[in-house]
Amino acid sequence: MARIVYAMEQEISLERESVNEVESFKYLGTVISNTGSLDLEFSAWNIRTLQEVTNTNRLERRTALVCKELARFNIDVVALSETRLPEEGNIRESGKGYTIFWKGKALEEPRIHGVGFTLHSQLVHQHNLAPKAISERLMTVRIPITLNSHLTLISVYAPTMTSTDDDKAVFYTQHDHTIQTVPANNKLVGLGDFNARVGKDHRIWEGIIGRHGIGNCSANGQLLLGLCAEHQLVLTNTIFQLPKRHKTTWRHPRSKHWNTLDYVLTRDRDRGDVHITRSMPGAGDCWTDHRLLISQLSVAEADCQRRIREAQKTWWQRKAAETQSFATNVTCAASMQQQRKYSVPHGHQWAA
């Protein structure tokens, strides 16, 4: 009897948990597309510097100009490279609706490198987001998708070809460790300036490079491909058939040739969630030789998730009702059995 009542309580508790999950299923201020999916707009942008120059006639700060461009493309999350700002900090561009986070070298060190995130301020306040700086080349942020899962983003600014082998080894060791700390059930997106050309050999690097890569592979590209192979990551730039101007992200200062150095990576199992990854030649002049790289990712299927949870709720309600009915019948049967056990048979006299 006690076990039956306990089972009934457990099923009712599970039903309540299912209902609570439906109520707390927050979607970050994302938009529902025509296909019913919940999408986020990501981008990676090497902006060369966020430092202000005193001898300029610009009416707006550099951070404001960058945010203005991001708002024009309706981007939710941006990985910034080569910010060149010292220490660690953040600034809110309230007029543009974005908050910029950065991590740079110490104040007394040269103003080089630097990495950061620009997040839509609504996301920051709704989910109390606080990016975590790993170094002046790596930064992460976790965004809740459902009650029990997150989207982990890694903003990257990798060493250039002229960097020392030690610098490259330190960076890729840190990057490898950062990826390992991401829970397996989390969606993972790495984006930024990897300073690497991966080429187009999709047969050798099957599952990592798609059929639409360009150019040749560099030494840094080999390092990046090795990291992707170890963690089953796909270079989403290479899986879409696009004009070359929408694949390349950086122009060589001497040859004037365009190359791809900026990438958006995700787990191979989630490649179907990426709708598009492309560069934007139309992005405004923000004193950078890198094009803005944009990627659209489905973080959940809205209608599918809703139908599943409604079915779960209905099922738990029906099971709770059946369990309650069964427990009531068992209780009545047990009560009748107890009455028969201790009742005096007709014509029987108790002994004196």
Keywords for this structure?
352 residues; Deoxyribonuclease I, Chain A; 2 domains; 6-stranded mixed β-sheet; disordered N terminus
Task: Describe the secondary structure blueprint for this structure.
Layout (H helix, E strand, L loop, with lengths): L1 H22 L7 E2 L4 E10 L15 H11 L4 E5 L6 E6 L4 E6 L11 E6 H7 L4 E2 L4 E7 L5 E8 L7 H16 L6 E7 L25 H13 L1 E3 L14 E2 L6 E2 L2 E6 L6 E7 L11 E10 H41 L10
Parallel strand pairs: 2-3, 9-10
Antiparallel strand pairs: 1-2, 2-16, 3-6, 4-5, 5-6, 7-8, 8-9, 10-14, 11-14, 12-13, 15-16
Task: Please tell me about this protein's structure.
By secondary structure, this protein is of the alpha+beta class. It folds into 2 domains: 54 residues; 271 residues, Deoxyribonuclease I, Chain A (4-Layer Sandwich), CATH 3.60.10. Helix content is 31%, strand content 25%. The chain is built from 6 helices and 16 strands. The strands form 3 sheets. Strands 1, 2, 3, 4, 5, 6, 15 and 16 form an 8-stranded mixed beta sheet that branches. The protein is elongated. The two termini are 36 Å apart.
Short description:
The chain has 352 residues and is α+β, with helices and mostly antiparallel strands.
Helix content: 25-40%
Structural class: alpha+beta
User: For the residues shown, what is the average pLDDT?
Assistant: 84
What's the CATH architecture name of the largest domain? 4-Layer Sandwich
| Total count of helical runs of at least 4 residues | 6
Shape: elongated
Order of helices and strands: HEEHEEEEHEEEHEHEEEEEEH
CATH homologous superfamily grouping of the largest domain: Endonuclease/exonuclease/phosphatase
The tally of beta strands, per DSSP, is: 16
For the terminal residues, how far apart are their CA atoms? Answer: 36 Å
